[in-house]
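Follow-up to my post from last week.
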Amino acid sequence: MNDASRTYDVVVIGAGPVGENAADRTVAAGLSTAIVERELVGGECSYWACMPSKALLRPVIARAEGRRLPGLSEALSGPLDPAAVFGRRDEFTSHWDDAGQVGWLDSAGIDLVRGHGRLDGPKQVVVATPDGGTVRLTARHAVVLATGTTAALPSLPGLDEVRPWISRDATGAKEVPGRLAVVGGGVVAVEMATVFQALGSQVTLLVRGQGLLPKMEPFAGELVADSLREAGADVRFGASVASVARTGGEVRIGLADGGELVADEILFATGRRPHTGDLGLDTVGLTPGDWLSVDDTCRVTAVEDGWLYAVGDINHRALLTHQGKYQARMAGAAIGVRAKGEPVDDRPWGAHVATADHAAVPQVVFTDPEVGAVGLTAAEAERAGLRVKVVDYDLANVSGASLFGDDYRGRARMVVDLDRGVLAGVTFVGPGTGELLHSATIAVAGEVPVERLWHAVPSYPTISEIWLRLLETYRQ
Ligand SMILES: Cc1cc2nc3c(=O)[nH]c(=O)nc-3n(C[C@H](O)[C@H](O)[C@H](O)COP(=O)(O)OP(=O)(O)OC[C@H]3O[C@@H](n4cnc5c(N)ncnc54)[C@H](O)[C@@H]3O)c2cc1C
Ligand SMILES: NC(=O)c1ccc[n+]([C@@H]2O[C@H](COP(=O)([O-])OP(=O)(O)OC[C@H]3O[C@@H](n4cnc5c(N)ncnc54)[C@H](O)[C@@H]3O)[C@@H](O)[C@H]2O)c1
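User reply:
Got it. Predicted complex:
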């Protein structure tokens, strides 16, 4: 063994939250593990996605909530201080320094190899190191790909010259643009529109569809759109960008309907593409640039002998940090038992399978109002052929919600699978509901019978009383 060629039980490429967790689990299973990272240990989530975006959103949401409380609202009438908001964000990204996360890798017994990793045939990884050298890593048991995603941009004439913002530019911003155009109606678009409108930008949201948050219950996007408009944002539906050009510091945006919009910056929040284009996938018979299909233990299905795993965003099952970390826990444990020749517990909800990816993926959108959803929407349940009862309730009628803030607006939906007597999905929309979501995740993942939920008594007067109201409505 020398510096340029090393052998480990497991090699992980990508030290985002998901790769880190996979490595932690394989070390816990007694397997020597190296992790390869080309940028910052901690990945997109820690430095450019979850953490900075939520650090930017927190004062925005806290202020919006405080402004609904007479006695407090007067003290919150002034503008937010962007420099202080950006400063707190910088603390949460550790000023884009990964020393803390590298220390954690050390403490967990995971070897870090810095550089760009590529597959080079079965169980082989070649790392191009920052000093121009190469390190060959051989895996005895498994290679785990956890290389995440980057922003997907549409192909538009002139886009490169415009220097458009992608999510990294928004979450890492140092200045507040006077006019910000945001293209897209998904999670990044609504969260960043919320931040920049509150920090002082005039935001225009250009949504090609007819609603926001199209993967969720329709009322979620409707309530978020109402609130963005009340905050002063211009939310346009059926608005497709046809061309972009930068002249004299301004971006001129041509719309498909012939209209034009002028902005100082344009953010494309139009989805993600996987970091699989330059990963050596062709050396193992896969197509560069593709998302990677996996089984429930996260093994890449198209590769023989079961040595290649893909966890987190790149398998396209659920582009969320918590769900990727869950996959990493399952895959890491599966690699551990397979290495020992022990049986894999791959029954649904078994110890080595990411069953929740199919039935119980939770997500909180940190807008005002917050949106929390888990499991199937009513439309998805219908498409899946389930016999369901859809139960809606206006959160404004819950005592805990009206105490939370005046003029409370929110709505909840419970989708009951009538044949199994359990919940297929739950959605909460309203201020303060994000922390409520895990109760629904437990009910859905635990397949708690609706009749037993009737005995789970929510405390009075909390927003959790929505559970009682939904169940009463269901039983009527
Ligand atoms: C603006 C924004 C906000 C978000 N907010 C949330 C949120 O609030 N909650 C949530 O659950 N999810 C959120 N997400 C999604 C979340 O960021 C991702 O689901 C998560 O980062 C996926 O983790 P990962 O480890 O799979 O990939 P990543 O975090 O992308 O990490 C992949 C790592 O692999 C490295 N890498 C890539 N290729 C190579 C290579 N060839 N060699 C070596 N290293 C390589 C990268 O440098 C990176 O460090 C957000 C996303 C965005 C864009
Ligand atoms: N709070 C959270 O959990 C959180 C926050 C941010 C991001 N994320 C995750 O990160 C991922 C990426 O988020 P995202 O918002 O970029 O993707 P997304 O898939 O949620 O939304 C992309 C939106 O862009 C639209 N779009 C795509 N191409 C377009 C085009 N050419 N022109 C106009 N519109 C176009 C789509 O119709 C869609 O509405 C998501 O999977 C999301 O779950 C999660």
